[in-house]
């Protein structure tokens, strides 16, 4: 598979090592609108073909698939251009800035018949995959309660560089630069982690979002620091369970930690993922009586990168697809509305309420087309 890398920033550097390690993958060219980044990246990874615009790369055209590693705001236009050129697309998360854009990308990719996947990285966490299998096999019984958190601390620590001066952090803090804050950035990961692990979907959302004061006047250069950097959410799941999901960039002492706890009638699981390790613990069977938790060994799983390459090779779409990421985008959109309106919103489709008119002559009722007088009324919150 001939792969084009679009956007050569920090995530592209991480991605390329995964792709290069897969047999049959050749990185044939790179694109970046910033010539300095492009040169540094292409020199470092030995890529000869370089383009300063995606249009130029598409005009050249000698690639099968592209990895879109541009900032969030660019995903929509760049992915659509790649799809229009008939290329398979592996897009970074979040798929888009909003649900409407995400669905446009989904429809375009599905109509073109190209493989479309979104890099929800934590699908690569083996304990998550194993936990989902256990839930699906009924080992926990009915799921009643879920707790999920994604904790980062780059606003208080310099371990990942200085957000005050580095553009790769500054665009993440600014809505006018296309960021939905921590909600769009890693919220999408933890929403996927929670729903995928519990093997269900989110169908109700109540959220609180907050952007804290970080700089005089709330801005640094052209960056208004108005994107949320902490959120809490209570959610309802399609399987009837309740859940709490939260994430923060102010979680002092946690560089990058995801935790998911799934509580069922017959057992519970806890997944922890940190930069150094991940683990699965369970409290099951007789252990419920003593609240004893044990480590569970899990086998390795293929990464999203490997699965994308396999999907292109076989022509068979694999998860996580654009459509799935668009569904998650809808949760994010509703969370933003929920914060503004301070009320719970639903992802369920509107219910059609049928009002039959009062008719004077009963016999007439049967003869009339009731549908002619249908009144439909949506209930709450779909965007
Ligand atoms: N899956 C994950 O775990 C994960 C982790 C980190 C980042 N990301 C995602 O990866 C994407 C990139 O993040 P990053 O941290 O690498 O950002 P970054 O700012 O370091 O890099 C983005 C690069 O894209 C380039 N660019 C901008 N517009 C472009 C265009 N139209 N065409 C080509 N190049 C363009 C920029 O010049 C920059 O070099 C974001 O969407 C982010 O959310 C995902």
Automatic annotation (TrEMBL):
<dbReference type="Pfam" id="PF22725">
    <property type="entry name" value="GFO_IDH_MocA_C3"/>
</dbReference>
<dbReference type="GO" id="GO:0000166">
    <property type="term" value="F:nucleotide binding"/>
</dbReference>
<dbReference type="InterPro" id="IPR050463">
    <property type="entry name" value="Gfo/Idh/MocA_oxidrdct_glycsds"/>
</dbReference>
<dbReference type="InterPro" id="IPR036291">
    <property type="entry name" value="NAD(P)-bd_dom_sf"/>
</dbReference>
<keyword id="KW-0560">Oxidoreductase</keyword>
<feature type="domain" description="GFO/IDH/MocA-like oxidoreductase">
    <location>
        <begin position="129"/>
        <end position="270"/>
    </location>
</feature>
<dbReference type="Pfam" id="PF01408">
    <property type="entry name" value="GFO_IDH_MocA"/>
</dbReference>
<dbReference type="GO" id="GO:0016491">
    <property type="term" value="F:oxidoreductase activity"/>
</dbReference>
<dbReference type="InterPro" id="IPR055170">
    <property type="entry name" value="GFO_IDH_MocA-like_dom"/>
</dbReference>
<protein>
    <submittedName>
        <fullName>Oxidoreductase</fullName>
    </submittedName>
</protein>
<dbReference type="InterPro" id="IPR000683">
    <property type="entry name" value="Gfo/Idh/MocA-like_OxRdtase_N"/>
</dbReference>
<feature type="domain" description="Gfo/Idh/MocA-like oxidoreductase N-terminal">
    <location>
        <begin position="2"/>
        <end position="119"/>
    </location>
</feature>
């Amino acid at each position: 598979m001939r792969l084009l890398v679009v956007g050569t920033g920090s995530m592209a550097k991480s991605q390329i090592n995964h792709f290069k390690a897969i047999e049959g993958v050749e990185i044939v060219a790179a694109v970046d609108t910033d010539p300095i980044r492009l040169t540094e990246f292409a020199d470092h990874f030995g890529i000869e073909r370089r383009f300063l615009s995606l249009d130029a790369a598409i005009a050249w055209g000698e690639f099968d698939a592209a990895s879109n590693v541009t900032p969030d705001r660019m995903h929509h236009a760049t992915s659509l251009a790649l799809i229009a050129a008939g290329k398979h697309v592996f897009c970074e998360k979040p798929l888009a800035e909003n649900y409407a854009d995400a669905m446009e990308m989904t429809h375009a990719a599905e109509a073109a018949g190209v493989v479309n996947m979104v890099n929800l990285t934590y699908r690569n966490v083996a304990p998550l995959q194993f936990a989902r299998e256990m839930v699906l096999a009924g080992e926990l019984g009915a799921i009643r309660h879920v707790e999920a958190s994604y904790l980062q601390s780059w606003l208080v620590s310099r371990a990942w560089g200085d957000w005050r001066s580095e553009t790769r952090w500054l665009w993440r803090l600014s809505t006018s630069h296309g960021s939905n804050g921590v909600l769009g950035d890693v919220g999408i990961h933890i929403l996927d982690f929670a729903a995928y692990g519990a093997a269900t979907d989110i169908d109700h959302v109540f959220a609180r979002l907050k952007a804290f004061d970080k700089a005089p006047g709330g801005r640094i250069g052209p960056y208004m620091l108005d994107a949320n950097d902490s959120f809490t959410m209570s959610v309802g799941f399609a399987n009837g369970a309740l859940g709490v999901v939260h994430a923060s960039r102010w979680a002092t002492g946690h560089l990058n930690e995801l935790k998911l706890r799934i509580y069922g009638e017959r057992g519970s699981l806890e997944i922890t993922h940190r930069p150094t390790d991940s683990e699965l613990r369970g409290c099951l069977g007789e252990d419920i009586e003593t609240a004893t938790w044990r480590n569970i060994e899990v086998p390795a799983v293929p990464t999203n990168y490997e699965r994308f390459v396999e999907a292109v090779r076989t022509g068979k779409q694999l998860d996580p697809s654009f459509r799935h990421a668009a569904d998650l985008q809808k949760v994010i959109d509703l969370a933003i509305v929920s914060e503004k309106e301070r009320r719970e919103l639903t992802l369920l489709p509107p219910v059609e309420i049928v009002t039959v008119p009062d008719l004077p002559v009963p016999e007439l009722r049967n003869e009339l087309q009731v549908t002619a007088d249908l009144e439909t009324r949506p209930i709450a919150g779909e965007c």
